[in-house]
Amino acid sequence: MTRDEAQQLVETILGYAIVPEAEVRVNVTRRGFLRFARNQPTTAGETASASVSFTAWKGKRRASVLGTIEILGGRLDETALKKLVADAEDLAAISPEDREYMPPLGPQEYLKVDAFDEATATAGAKKRAQIAADAIAYAKEKNVRAAGFLDQTARYSAVANAKELFAYHPSTSVEFSITARTLDETGSGYSRIESQAHRSIDVREAAAIAVRKAVASRKASEIKPDAYPTVLEPLAANDLLGTFRFDSRFAEEGRSVFSAPEGNTRVGERLFDKRLTIRGDPSHPLVPSSPIGPGGYPVEKSVLVEEGVLKTLQSSRWWAAQKEREPGPFTTNLILEGGRKSLREIIQSTKKGVLVSRFWYIRTVDRRQALVTGLTRDGTFWIEDGEIAHPIMNFRFNESMVRILGDLEELGQPVRVGRRMTPSLRARAFHFTSLSDAV
Fold first, then answer.
1. How far apart are CA 421 and CA 287, in angstroms?
2. 54 and 193 both lie in a single domain
3. Does residue 437 or residue 348 have the better pLDDT?
4. Which is deepest, 15, 268, 407, 423, by most CB within 10 Å?
5. Does residue 271 share a domain with residue 136?
């Protein structure tokens, strides 16, 4: 779906509306995938889908209807689209008033973001089969069993409203993940890579990482749960980053780790290691993201934490209006930066401690402390005198990423993990609370 096609489509849909305030969102997705297990492909396929979401306002009453409707290949199901619009308008008439109503935005300016790779968008089943075959061949060569998933997506998104706002964003992504298990089922390793382009991922290297971890983690020994200096690989650090939000309303209502007494926040305080800066930038070359925020609000470059100081928190349009300030800053990615060391260099500088590959089954314990619990997985090791000495059993932990980022010993070079640029790091003390016999 080109920009011109998207604009023509949303204008057609808005033309069906009777209400003066309306918004339409269109997402067209083309996806190819391949799953493998026990060193052989198991499932593969391609899908093409288009969804249309229409929101109607009648005064402060609002309703949205989402439908999967035929709009591809020059075929437009006008009857279904008209019904979707009419249904939203009918539901808006009987909906309760929205106490946080904000009028739709007018035209906006958006950052130019290069997030689309044509070769990735058009790559077929043969390309995906070759990628999986490389990983499987490496696993067989090392005498381990591998399972994994390759997901390739081209997405075209558009949003428009009756106030003449229009935004369009095409993007591609490819994600490859692999889990390797030793034949005796005592060792497990995992690796994941992603990019907007096939040419930017090294599948064989990802497979090699997973296989090395699986072989190295066999027959893990038991150590006492305690607070240890701990090296978190980027995957592990990223697993915990999603457990707290830079949300001003949460903070000002006393529901956040960033809350202060009497409805204040901790903006302006040095809460994190002074080397650390956290920012958003949808145009970042390694982790590009959508420049379209909530309600079509533009996503700009922003700094949330600068040299350890909390600089700002994010406000929705409604909350910003209550506090008489500007909305945002909205983010669709995060970049954590300030360190330059590689993971290997951080391990080499560790006298004694734990190395965590990644976490899983993470659950919130206390939002006021950003305290979460979960389990280590797929390779947990003991470090001694700068070397990985031996594998250890997995742990359950209770910890706050905000506390960890405020008490760092080492901060590494960030790499792409999901929608973030995340560094490896070494925490001065990470709290492990009990053992887990899971591999």
1. 7
2. yes
3. 348
4. 423
5. no
SS3 at position 241: helix
- The total of other beta-carbon atoms located within 10 Å of residue 363's CB is 8
Pairing of strands 227-232, 352-366: parallel
Q: Are 96 and 63 in contact (CB under 8 A)?
A: no
The amino acid present at 177, given as its one-letter code, is S
Q: How far apart are CA 106 and CA 27, in angstroms?
A: 21
Torsion over CA of 293, 297, 302 and 305, rounded to 10 degrees? -70
Residue listed under structure tokens 């700068």: 386
Whether residues 76 and 196 fall in one domain:
yes
Q: Which domain holds residue 312?
A: 261-332
pLDDT band at 78 (very low <50, low <70, confident <90, very high): confident
Q: Measure the CA–CA gap between 196 and 108, rounded to whole angstroms.
A: 26
Assign 126 to helix, strand or coil.
helix
Q: What is the pLDDT of residues 173-195, one digit of tens each?
A: 999 999 999 999 999 999 999 99
pTM of the predicted protein model: 0.92
